[in-house]
């Protein structure tokens, strides 16, 4: 089995060399470990449109890393989810449908502690009145991976239980 974790001593210098394809070969547990080591971003770094790229989806770790990366690479090329748009303390998902641009699923953007206790994050809180009730259970957490590149984990709140749903990157 190939080890995909960054070694702590090499982490800071290696983050610039980590590309989304290599991240998409990592299992969720390895992305959890990487996320825990990252520093939080600032709200100022997040303004404007950020291009999104899905790295991992819960339940797909059984697929070999190379195949999972290829599948997610294909999905990321589809013109559907384009990323996120940040405006002050608010954000929204950017979708591209045939002939239309749609911003859907708004959230509050704020500094907060990580739900797993691993330190501060930028929280993307979907519990806002503009969203349908099922979306209000979503909580995203964001940290900086490299200059202009952010790692985001999406989670669902199931009562007091936190269920990891996916990881993705956002880039300027």
Can you give a write-up of this model?
The protein is α+β, with helices and mostly antiparallel strands and 172 residues long. It has one domain (8-171). The chain is 20% helix and 44% strand. The protein contains 4 helices and 8 strands, in the order H-H-H-E-H-E-E-E-E-E-E-E. An 8-stranded antiparallel β-barrel has the order 1-2-3-4-5-6-7-8. This is DUF4166 domain-containing protein.
Care to give the gist of this entry?
This protein is 20% helix and 44% strand.
> Rg from C-alpha positions?
16 Å
Number of beta-strand segments: 8
Give the biggest sheet: 8 strands, antiparallel, barrel
Count of helical regions: 4
| Uncertain parts | 1-16
Give the SSE order as H and E letters: HHHEHEEEEEEE
What gap, in angstroms, lies between the N and C termini? 33 Å
Rounded mean pLDDT is: 83
**Structural class by sheet pairing and helices:** alpha+beta
Approximate shape: globular
Number of domains: 1
- Report the sheet-strand fraction: 35-45%
Portion of residues in helices?
Answer: 10-25%
Main sheet: strand order: 1-2-3-4-5-6-7-8
Protein name: DUF4166 domain-containing protein
